[in-house]
Amino acid sequence: MAKYIAEPFRIKAVETIKMTTRDEREKLIKEAKYNLFNLKGEDVYIDLLTDSGTGAMSVEQWAGVMKGDEAYAGASSYYKLRDAGIDVFGYDYIQPVHQGRAAEKVLFPLLLNEGKYAISNMFFDTTRAHVELAGARAIDCVVEEAKNPTIRSPFKGNMDVEKLEKLINEYGPEKIGVVVMTITNNSAGGQPVSMKNMREVSEVCKKYNIPLNIDAARYAENAYFVKKREEECKHMSIQEIVKQMFSYADTFTMSAKKDAIVNMGGLIGVKDADSPLILKIKANCISYEGFYTYGGLSGRDLEALAIGIYEGIDESYLAYRIGQSEYIADRLDEAGISYQAPVGGHGVFVDAQAMFPHIPYYEFPGQVLAVELYKEAGIRTCDIGSYMLGNDPDTKEQLKADFEFTRLAIPRRVYTQAHLDNVVDALIAIKERAHEIKRGYRITWEPPILRHFQAHLEPIE
After folding, report:
1. What 3-state class would DSSP assign to 125?
2. Is 89 a catalytic residue?
């Protein structure tokens, strides 16, 4: 029997959401060219498109908004954020930017160029795009068990360390511009990375003198899994786990719109105060984001982020946060619906290929399920599969993803148990008629990079 973890907060303000009919939703998704990103937010009942920037800020964060120092240079709000970052992550230099992809835009061209490679446990779409925009190529190196949704392994987000070293030797250490550890591993289903794996990857990078960067969007959720599943860390606090894990890397990039629970913001961290990267990061930041003490953020954003960095590592909050995903997963187990198991941190990655085994990857089963969820109950989700992966940057051929997931990304401190039950009930209803859905979708127009944000699709009759 699925058990729901009670919220460790009270609701103080509410936002009205609109209910629509199935006929209305079928018309709306057709007008949106069967792309969930093209829907108006007001036409969505439960929005699980992303957990990025969609969380509910606390009263302390809103109070911080009112105290934001809007000085162009050297604002007190910047120093609060800097000190919080140094305290939580243990890095000497903290650079604010406006979001995660801005952090990648500032840092990656300093490490990558044409002819180089970046290796990761798995790249998310925007990170992969910034590798390619720098002229380099991205290589995924996740452990094999991550590729089987039914295997219940505790750290399916891990890097395959043996394969990593083989790749370094195959391409040559001088050709590897950076190794990126994504925690939690989003594309693999929000799966955690173990402390042991981070340490082993760090040792390989040091051996070959390759920079190690953490994609740290979900640093707190990863630390919670480490505490619960890794014997050496069971008696450590979440903050102690975070600091130790970050100690193994040289830099980090972060979308703070996830675990720091803000609507806008990002960070770059550099461990060593004497690193020559810092001056180059400041220069790029001034060019792309604004002066380095505000980095594209208002003072009120800096204040909310400084508070959110701490709120995200509160253990009672994290138990509830992960508990929401576990609740959905338990109900899916009862219904016989496959997902990336055990469930990840920021949401549930439903195995769309298992639900539609007759629909090939090039007809995008993950997108099929996403569209059906919207038509069924006004729920907006997204494909994490071949549709999102896109085309090979060199051959332009459609790539086949390791998974065909539909991601239910749960916003932080936003939805109740009743909302989650509505989502599962919709999935059960779709499963019962899945055999009636014979074909998937074809793309009628797409941009060259990050196509899934803008592409137009049509159903294949």
Report:
1. helix
2. no
